[in-house]
Amino acid sequence: MSPTEEIPQEILNQVLHLHEQVSIEADRIARGLGELLVCRHGCHDCCIDDLTVFPIEAEIIRRNCGPLLVSDSAHPKGKCAFLDASGGCRIYQWRPYVCRTQGLPLQWPDFDDSGSTSFAKDICPLNLTQLKENGFNLYDLPTNFFWTLGNVESQLASLQVAALGRFEENLPRIFLRNLFKI
Asked: For the packed helices 9-33 and 55-71, what is the interaxial angle rounded to 10 degrees?
């Protein structure tokens, strides 16, 4: 899907609704963890280059941040193109799914050879240090304090297929940095 192909507004509205639901749940997790998360405005260790999004999320950024993409320049390579000089996000309101869950404890199904399912878990190294300094082990946190990977990604993929009007085995992805080249 090229930038000139029209994505139906209804699909973009569904992506925006999904983003809103993700933010609500991510905020709930962050509030529950409180001071155990060091993620704050200006913390940008997770804001790296090479993050990609589906074209449907890129289109939301294009439509809502067009002047920034045309008149401003990308943050220097090595960090996210959308960071400002103080490490804040210039597209925070329109940020994609991947950015809405950065820093949270993550879990995803991990299947072993016996067919048993457990969850692999991970967290930003800064937050892991904070957990340990406060006497917590990542694997001991209650399940409701984790963002579970898979469901939202599947919903975004389905919306991208709907936008394309066809299934593609390898759905297109766009590097965030490349949005400055509109």
From this structure: 90
Other C-beta atoms lying within 10 Å of the C-beta of residue 151: 9
Per-residue pLDDT at 5: 63
Q: What is d(CA 93, CA 13) in angstroms, rounded to the nearest whole number?
A: 14
Rounded distance, CA 161 to CA 80, Å? 26
pLDDT of 146 > 70? The answer is: yes
Average pLDDT for 46-71: 94
Per-residue pLDDT, averaged over 16-21, amounts to 98
107: tokens are 């879990």
Residue 114 confidence (pLDDT): 80
Residue type, 41: H
Is the Cβ–Cβ distance between 155 and 97 less than 8 Å?
no
**Distance separating alpha carbons of residues 127 and 79, to the nearest angstrom:** 19
Residue 2 has pLDDT above 80, yes or no: no
Give me the residue spans of the domains in the chain: 9-103+150-181
What is d(CA 37, CA 117) in angstroms, rounded to the nearest whole number? 27
Query: Which residues are within 8 A (CB) of 20 and not within 5 positions of it... i.e. 6 or more apart?
Result: none
Helix, strand or coil for residue 175? strand
